[in-house]
Amino acid sequence: MKALLLAGGLGTRLRPLTENLPKPMALVGNKPWLEHLIVHLKQQGIGDFVLAVKHYADVIKKRLGDGSSLGVRIEYAIEEDLLGTAGAIKNAEDLLSDRFLVVNSDIIHEISIIPLLEFHRNHNGLVTIGLTEVEDPSQYGVVELDMSGRILRFVEKPNKHEAPSRFINAGIYVMEKEALQWIPKHKEVSIERETFPLLIEKNIGVYGKTINGYWMDMGTKNRYRQLHWDLLDGKFTLPLKEKEQGKGIWLGRNTEIGPGVLLVPPVLIGDEVHIGERSVIGPYAVIGDHCELGRHVRCSETIMWDKCKVHDSTQLNNCIFGYGLEVGSRHILHEAVMNRAVGVIQG
Ligand code: GDD
Ligand code: MG
After folding, report:
1. Which entry of 5, 40, 62, 338 is 20 to 30 Å from 100 by CA?
2. Which residues line ligand 1 (CB under 6 A)?
């Protein structure tokens, strides 16, 4: 069975981080999420992937290629224009197996797909949607189910008071290729707003199955931060390349911590990082590979990607920096989300 990973969205809510990068390539625990996702699915027996891409497709192709570096096979379904979630699946039709898995690539999860597949096999539907329960369903696709698990209603991003339940589309589906006959070709179509409601109306067999395990959509800055704090707090695990050296302190290879530096757990610091004397890092700091932090820097609740440079005596709190951002000395930054392509702060 193949897995189709939807990875073509614009990632507008994560801008400027996604200004020159597809959202699923955002680093999670110092590695592009898409790589973690492929490895996670590979561990569950999936070896063939189709990537539905558009926005900065080359970034993905350059990094993952044919998949051999991860021990899988990857093919690409490239969209000239954005086709929407259903249009992207239709566009990949020729590359798909009769039964396939669809995954929104911006979902951080630790989910076993076996129960979902079993449920799908036992119910003979055309689609089985993985469901998860959330406090506020208004940001998601919300479902109403009957006792058998059949979906009676699917409402994408309802008003708070109109949500039929707190069970939402987790962005993981098992689908039969047969279902694709209901999606028009070469057209922008949303699976959530058009295809699912249509299949439900025609009573064609759309089921929902609750999935267990950690789940988070990384699509907003707050959620992107939160999932990192959850990772550092051990609410879910990822195969990190950094080693835990003390409780809640992960360090990469050849990282130099200067004299008098205080690491306040939890912190995750990548490879070849240099931290100058008397800096205080953490709690909740994720520092990418090859970053350089000067002396007397303070950095808490902050994520920075590879090759960032922070000069002496700068204080960072609640910031997210894309690749290679440089911040001068003696700045005080709170809640700054920045990308080198958008702005470099010089001191
Ligand atoms: N190839 C391609 N083409 N991919 C797309 C397109 C497109 O036109 N539009 C979106 N995607 C990809 C995105 O890259 C992302 O991985 C996934 O489809 C979902 O898009 P989002 O933009 O992140 O949607 P959302 O988070 O608002 O809502 C979706 O996910 C929720 C779960 O997190 C919906 O599926 C909701 O129903 C669901 O609850
Ligand atoms: Mg999303």
Report:
1. 62
2. 6-9, 23-24, 52-54, 79, 82-85, 88, 104-107, 140-141, 156, 168-169, 171, 192, 217, 219
Closest CA to 30 of 250, 219, 335, 343: 250
Name which residue sits closest to atom 25 of ligand 1, judged by CA. Answer: 140
Of all ligands present, the nearest one to the C-alpha of 215 is: 1
| Mutation choice for ligand 1 from 17, 53, 106, 166, CB with most ligand atoms inside 8 A | 106
Q: What is the pLDDT along the chain (347 residues), one digit of tens a residue?
A: 999 999 998 888 889 888 889 999 999 999 999 999 999 999 999 999 999 999 899 999 999 999 999 999 999 999 998 899 999 999 999 999 999 999 999 999 988 899 999 999 999 999 999 999 999 999 999 999 999 999 999 999 998 888 889 999 999 999 999 999 999 999 999 999 999 999 999 998 999 999 999 999 999 999 999 999 999 999 999 999 999 998 999 999 999 999 999 999 999 999 999 999 999 999 999 999 999 999 999 999 999 999 999 999 999 999 999 999 999 999 999 999 988 755 545 44
Could you report how far apart the first and last alpha carbons of the chain are, in Å?
Answer: 53
Q: Is the peptide bond before 265 cis (omega within 30 degrees of 0)?
A: no
What's the rounded Cα separation, in Å, for the pair 60 and 40? 17
Amino acid at 318: N
- Give the position of tokens 């209603």: 153
Give all domains of the chain, ordered by start, each with its CATH number. 2-221 (3.90.550.10), 240-346 (2.160.10.10)
